[in-house]
């Protein structure tokens, strides 16, 4: 009896996500099945091990075994005579599928399984029937053995459908090396992996956090000129978005468009959010323009997402402009849009407009929710309209409108601002009596109020009580207490709290790192960061960005580069703002070649940069006196419709002027003047 082994040539792994809704290019659809049990198929000879798979730190922690207990026949190099699929008299209907599957499920090794299947070896059963058998078998080891019987015993012509089903079962069992072997074996048998093959690989690797591997499979798919579909790319972008790896999401979006696929409304709306999270605000707004140009009409979600991008980054004037554009397009408002705009009006000291919009919502047949009330409550408080705020708060109670922890937190801040400290304290008791559980912000608010009122003893007692009770203490609460101590001159107490964070026992290390960074404690932040990174505890991409920003502000450029290199080592793509800080660090260290390499690499990966990054690179080229590269990048940017041309010309002219190349500076400014004249 021969053993089951897969000959697998080493290959590079790609990081992608399979789309669960993708289908194969054929009309034959193979449904996904869930695993219910596993069986051990022992072997006298270990299965060939396959090259290790490179995965990001967020990948599954399971280690890859060096040998497999699955029996696989080594593909024969000798010529085989496969049965011909002539216009058949298939006898599929004569076989009781349920009985066959029951018999298969009772086997425990390859010999038993082949024995069960042997009576069907010379019967005319179609390959479709055999693929159906595979699709109903949930155990990956049995499905691999059945595939060997189909290929090497019954001598069917190799079928991509059969391999796709087995590949699916193997990936669901998280047998990554075996999946690589199956993929290589497909090629050895002359089969071309199709869209379904790659979709399955991309999705399964991606969902297990092996995003670099998923991207590698995507690259392989593109090299094989297998066209992906919108669902596949959408799943990848959504995964990157959830991992906060926005640069990678943007890179995948570029691949999608380069492959000729037209994004749909949902994809465009997602990318507005992604560009916003990456702080590429101009690009986020240009998405709306692009939608109109390709015939995808922006909807309410498009505009509300863009509004949220601007508001989340405190760009309230820009948000007001988007709202005006939305009204000009006669796009209907919804609850989310109204809530955002109430906040925008409040931030711009336009309390009357916020009030007017809130009370007109019902006329637009939009029922305000608790978020609407909470937002208007905050607007009243910021405008010091304390009477209106208290009236609205009690109105909610009279009309039995739901109040939540945010409502009470907002009202506490209002009482604190109006110096009514006891009323704020009473609210804490009231919310608990109503069954509303205080959160970290509640406690931060009351501690801050007590600290400002000179009641530090009460604040300290509450903080210690919270720590001993096991309540989750977030960075805001910690910083609030540190500031309260420092405000009254108790610097030693503040330092003690900061020292305790170096060995946190009640908060995640990532939170401790962020607290140190925001407090400007460079050494402590670096110490905890290194400990956490070595332990594999740094999963949030924002922690890397926070540390790079901290070191850049404190002119610790070598440390900033160190964090950047760690960030790249685990497969994260830096955002545009991080790239700007890193390029600046390389420039300060006079490592221009490394800066150029990072800039080029990120561009090749499809990252989208803000204008500032491009302008910074121009300055770095000038600093190493490489004016050919300055001119080359300038010409490329000048032809890019997304670049602010006036700023570009001013930056390049300034670079030439600083380096005493006055003729070039004059040439650039004349070019700008001529363009302005031509436009006029």
From TrEMBL:
PPR repeat placement: 159-193, 194-228, 229-263, 264-298, 299-333, 334-368, 369-403, 404-438, 439-473, 540-574, 575-609
Disordered: annotated span: 41-69
This protein's UniProt keywords: Repeat
InterPro entries in the record: PPR_rpt, TPR-like_helical_dom_sf
Keyword Cell inner membrane: no
Superkingdom of this protein's organism: Eukaryota
Family designation: Belongs to the PPR family. P subfamily.
PANTHER family: OS03G0856100 PROTEIN (PTHR47447), PENTATRICOPEPTIDE REPEAT-CONTAINING PROTEIN (PTHR47447:SF7)
NCBIfam families to which the protein is assigned, alphabetical: PPR
Protein name: Pentatricopeptide repeat-containing protein
Species, as recorded: Acer negundo
Taxonomic lineage of the native organism: Eukaryota, Viridiplantae, Streptophyta, Embryophyta, Tracheophyta
């Amino acid at each position: 009896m021969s053993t089951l082994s897969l000959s697998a040539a080493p290959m590079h792994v790609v990081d992608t996500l399979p789309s669960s809704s993708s289908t194969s290019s054929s009309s034959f659809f193979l449904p996904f099945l869930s695993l219910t049990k596993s069986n051990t198929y022992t072997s006298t000879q270990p299965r060939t091990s396959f090259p290790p798979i490179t995965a990001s730190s967020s990948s599954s922690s399971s280690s890859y075994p060096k040998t497999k207990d699955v029996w696989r026949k080594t593909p024969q190099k000798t010529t085989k005579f496969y049965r011909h699929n002539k216009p058949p008299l298939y006898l599929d209907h004569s076989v009781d599928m349920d009985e066959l599957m029951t018999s298969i499920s009772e086997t425990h090794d390859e010999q038993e399984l082949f024995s069960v299947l042997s009576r069907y070896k010379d019967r005319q059963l179609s390959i479709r029937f055999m693929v159906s058998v595979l699709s109903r078998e949930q155990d990956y080891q049995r499905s691999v053995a059945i595939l060997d019987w189909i290929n090497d015993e019954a001598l069917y012509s190799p079928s991509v459908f059969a391999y796709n089903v087995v590949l699916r079962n193997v990936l669901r069992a998280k047998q990554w090396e075996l999946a690589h072997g199956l993929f290589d074996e497909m090629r050895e048998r002359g089969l071309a992996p199709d869209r379904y093959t790659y979709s399955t690989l991309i999705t399964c690797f991606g969902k297990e956090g092996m995003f670099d591997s998923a991207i590698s499979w995507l690259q392989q798919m593109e090299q094989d000129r297998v066209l992906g579909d919108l669902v596949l790319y959408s799943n990848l972008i959504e995964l990157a978005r959830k991992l906060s790896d926005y640069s990678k999401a943007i890179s995948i979006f570029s691949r999608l468009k380069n492959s000729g696929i037209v994004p749909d409304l949902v994809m465009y709306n997602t990318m507005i959010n992604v560009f916003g999270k990456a702080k590429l605000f101009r690009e986020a707004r240009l998405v709306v323009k692009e939608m109109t140009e390709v015939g995808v009409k922006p909807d309410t979600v498009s505009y509300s997402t863009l509004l949220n991008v601007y508001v989340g980054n405190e760009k309230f004037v820009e948000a007001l402009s988007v709202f005006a554009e939305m009204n000009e397009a006669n796009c209907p408002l919804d609850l989310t849009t109204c809530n955002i705009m109430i906040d925008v009006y409040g931030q711009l000291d336009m309390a009357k407009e916020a009030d007017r919009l809130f009370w007109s919502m019902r006329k637009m047949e939009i029922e305000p929710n608790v978020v609407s009330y909470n937002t208007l409550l905050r607007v009243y408080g910021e405008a010091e309209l304390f009477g209106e705020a208290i009236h609205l708060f009690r109105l909610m109670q009279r009309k039995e409108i739901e109040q939540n922890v945010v409502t009470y937190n907002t009202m506490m801040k209002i009482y604190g601002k109006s110096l009514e400290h006891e009323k704020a304290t009473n609210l804490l008791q009231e919310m608990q009596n109503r069954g509303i559980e205080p959160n970290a912000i509640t406690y931060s608010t009351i501690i801050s109020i007590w600290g400002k009122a000179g009641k530090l003893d009460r604040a300290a007692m509450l903080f210690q009580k919270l720590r001993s009770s096991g309540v989750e203490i977030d960075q805001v609460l910690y910083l609030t207490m540190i500031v309260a101590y420092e405000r009254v001159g108790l610097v030693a107490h503040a330092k003690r709290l900061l020292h305790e964070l170096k060995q946190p026992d009640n908060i995640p290390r990532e939170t401790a790192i962020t607290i140190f960074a925001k407090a400007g404690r460079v050494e402590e932040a670096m110490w905890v960061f290194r400990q956490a990174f070595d332990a594999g505890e740094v999963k949030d991409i924002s922690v890397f960005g926070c540390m790079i920003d901290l070191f850049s502000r404190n002119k610790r450029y070598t440390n900033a580069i160190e964090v950047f290199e760690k960030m790249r080592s685990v497969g994260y793509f830096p955002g545009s703002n991080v790239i700007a800080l890193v390029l600046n660090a390389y420039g300060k260290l006079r490592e221009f070649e490394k800066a150029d390499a990072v800039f080029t690499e990120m561009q090749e990966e499809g990252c989208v940069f803000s204008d500032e990054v491009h302008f910074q690179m121009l300055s770095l080229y000038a600093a190493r006196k490489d004016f050919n590269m300055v001119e080359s990048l300038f010409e490329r940017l000048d032809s890019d419709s997304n670049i602010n041309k006036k700023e570009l010309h001013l930056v390049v002219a300034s670079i030439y002027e600083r380096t005493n190349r006055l003729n070039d500076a004059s040439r650039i400014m004349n070019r700008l003047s001529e363009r302005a004249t031509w436009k006029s």
